[in-house]
Amino acid sequence: MNEQQKYFWEGVRAEVPLLIGVFPFGMIYGALAIDAGLSDVAAQMMSSTVFAGSAQFITAQLVKDSTPGFVIVLTIAVVNLRHMLYSASLAPYLASVSTRWKMLLSYLLTDEAYAPSIIQYENEGVKPFSHWFLFGAGAALWIIWQVSTALGIFLGAAIPDSWSLDFALPLTFIAMVVPVLKNRPSVAAALSAGCVALAAGSLPYKLGLIVAALVGIAIGIFLEKRMNATPDEKPSIHALRESLDE
């Protein structure tokens, strides 16, 4: 097995635990899209081209409510702003890859693909073929998303409400977040963002999620700067005391 294959399959294996929650999520989307009035082809094509679970759910609901097209586009743009943060976070590790690779990886970049990839890159750093890890994670997710969407479209309303498949989504995100909470700033950022998201849940166009993300980022950056500044401040205070004693 060459290096490309090694990193690819490592990415696939890292993605497998998250796929357990993604599969029922995709089924729910397929059934919801059909209920919203989308055709089978349109519902499946949205999974193939948009490839963003939250955006697809919101789009299906807005289409069902006969929302104007520009409002749908604006709402999805706001909801997906988090992908800019993902891209900025991964950029240093993918700076050396070609433009074609960056285009492909940006298409495959999702919440579930980002989580294991950033952990891998932070632990190992930049390697010649490490971008294949993200490719493997994203490709595995893409395939499962297409299959689960197709199954949801096929079953449609036959999925009983008693199954409560929607529980899989929060469990999947919890599984993604917990491994990266390694210090106080990250824990504080997650808790503050979660509290704000609950408090601002009634804001239109899912703006509460954006506000929560900004609050979490601000708190995380503030606390991290304080932690990084502390070691530098101690020597200066110590030196000041020595000078006063002299």
Task: Give the helix/strand layout.
Elements: H1 3-35, H2 40-49, H3 53-64, H4 69-79, H5 82-94, H6 99-108, H7 111-124, H8 131-155, H9 168-177, H10 184-199, H11 207-245
Defining key terms:
2 domains, mainly alpha, 11 helices, 246 residues, globular
Textual characterization of the structure:
- With 246 residues, this protein is mostly helical.
- It is globular and about 55 Å long.
- Helices cover 78% and strands 0% of the residues.
- It folds into two domains: 3-164, no CATH class; 181-246.
- It is built from eleven helices and no strands.
- The longest helix is centred in the C-terminal third of the chain and has 39 residues, at 207-245.
- Helix 1 (3-35) packs antiparallel against helix 7, helix 6 (99-108) runs parallel beside helix 8 and helix 10 (184-199) runs antiparallel to helix 11 (207-245).
- It has helices at 3-35, 40-49, 53-64, 69-79, 82-94, 99-108, 111-124, 131-155, 168-177, 184-199, 207-245.
Specify Rg, calculated over alpha carbons.
21 Å
Q: How far apart are the first and last residues' alpha carbons, in Å?
A: 66 Å
Number of strands: 0
Structural class: mainly alpha
Helix count from the secondary structure assignment: 11
Q: Which of globular, elongated, flat, extended, rod-shaped describes the shape?
A: globular
Largest sheet: none
Average pLDDT for all residues: 82
H/E element sequence: HHHHHHHHHHH
Helix fraction?
over 70%
* Strand residue percentage: under 5%
Uncertain residue segments? 233-237
The total number of structural domains is: 2
